[in-house]
Amino acid sequence: MKAVKLGIVSGLIIVSTISCQSPPEKPSGFQYLPAGDLVPPESGIGRADEKLYAPDIRFPIESPPAYVNSQVWGVGGMEGPPGDQCAQINYSYPWKDNYCEQRDHPMPLCPAGTGHQGVDIRPASCEKDRYWAVAVENGKVSHIGNYSLFLRGEETGTIYRYLHINVDSLAPGIQFGAVVSKGQRLGLVSNYFSGTPTTIHLHFDMKQSILTDNGTPLQVFVPPYTSLVSAYERLLAK
Amino acid sequence: MRWFAILLVVVSGITNNACAEPRTLDIDWTAANKDAAALRSLGSPPPNLSGGEVDASSFSATRLPVLLPSKLAFISYQASADKNSYDVQFQIQDATLLVSGDRYFQYLQSEIDADGLSSSTRPQFLNSFGISQLLFTRYGANYSLSLECSDPQNDSRCIAPEYLNQLYDSLHVVGGQP
Question: Which of A142, A150, A165 is most worth mutating to test chain B (most B CB atoms within 10 A of its CB)?
């Protein structure tokens, strides 16, 4: 399969093909900007990091297409161009990383030292409670809040957070402590955010631990974008 | 031929490592036991949680010190634990509190391209998406307190760090073993 990776240098769009190990499949049209290329540039300083922090995860939304891009700086967002959050441009490729997008949360791996802890993923269309979020790894449901679900990965120990899901209609058997399999349905992608709804999307992030040189661990939210690109390519190849 | 065999072994090791169990942290049980002994020396058992006791037998197989707050009024709780991690989710008034600990690490600092990473035993407060968190390390393990409020925009517990700091200050070892 060949996915198209786009790069923007000084306003010029550079297109290159990335050879993947998957066998040739039907063209998906999937395109993505490189990790760390935040759009627009004033939305923050991204982390240009191609490392696969979770190399074997399943893509967290059950069915393609899905679109990674900013809810804040996209069309209809608080800081974005005027328009409707459901505008078609928000539901199109290329993907745009928004890990490290401007926030005031301490984020040791973000160039600014603060930033967005994960990425935002829109499902196939602007409809809430229609698309399933699924387990990215075998593991255990370690938390269910008002609009959040945490999954503790069995193979890696990674904590995956799924936010803005509809916890009132979780998939059968999904409860605190439930043991789940990779790909198993968890809950529906929605706009839940307590009293004030957000846009229809899944916020997805990954917390891991780094054993620092002084011998103590440091818990950090690691860049998920490249791992998601890889997982999405595998999903498209099925 | 010998070099080829060695290469095969190395490659095999790398490949297997990708599917291996996560790496685990060494726990400072001396420090954990010392703290537990100091608490016992006060002449009374650790303060009870308001709302009932958490059944410590849930953590009998857990290989890290299980920390829980003592100053917490809760309505109900659920606990889940295994060898290397635990999670206790408390339903409290208008919020849920998750207390978690584990002894996993995914990377050595040398494996990450980042300058200036350093860890501290001081808790790190995060407030995002209406979820307040304290992330910290103690006894060599990872711990977190996560608070999700029903009304995060107006509930001071989910805005400022004071509430979680109070819970942090009341944490004590309730279970776990080497």
Answer: A142
Contact criterion met (CB < 8 Å) for A209 and B110? no
Q: Which tokens belong to B1?
A: 């031929």
Q: What is the phi-psi region of residue B112: left when phi exceeds 0, alpha when psi lies from -120 to 50, beta otherwise?
A: beta
Q: Which residues of B42-79 are buried (b: 16+ CB within 10 A; e: fewer)?
A: eeeeeeebeeeebeeebbeebbbbbbbbbebebeebbb
- Chain A: residue nearest B128 by CA? A105
Q: pTM value?
A: 0.89
SS3 A172: coil
> CB-based contacts of A139: which residues, under 8 Å, 6+ apart?
A151, A152, A153, A154, A155, A160, A179, A180
Respond yes or no on whether ipTM tops 0.90. Answer: no
Specify burial of residue A185 (Cβ count, 10 A radius: 0-12, 13-18, 19+): middle
Q: How far apart are CA B111 and CA B78, in angstroms?
A: 36
Q: What is the least distance, in Å, from the CA of B114 to any CA of chain A?
A: 7
What is the pLDDT confidence band of residue A13, given thresholds at 50, 70 and 90?
very low
Subunit contact A105:B135, Cβ cutoff 8 A: no
Cα separation, A4 vs A130, in Å, equals 28
Of all residues in chain B, the one with the smallest CA distance to A222 is B112
**Interval B160-177: pLDDT, tens:** 999 999 999 999 898 899
B86: closest chain A residue by CA = A142
Contact residues, chain A, for B27 at CB < 8 Å = none
Sheet of A132-134, strand order:
A132-134, A185-189, A165-166
> Is the CB of A162 inside 8 Å of chain B's CB atoms?
no
Using CB atoms within 10 Å of the CB of residue B19, give its burial: 0 to 12 exposed, 13 to 18 middle, 19+ buried: exposed
B128 contacts in A (CB within 8 Å)?
Answer: 103, 105, 117
Stronger pLDDT, B55 or B145, i.e. the higher one = B145
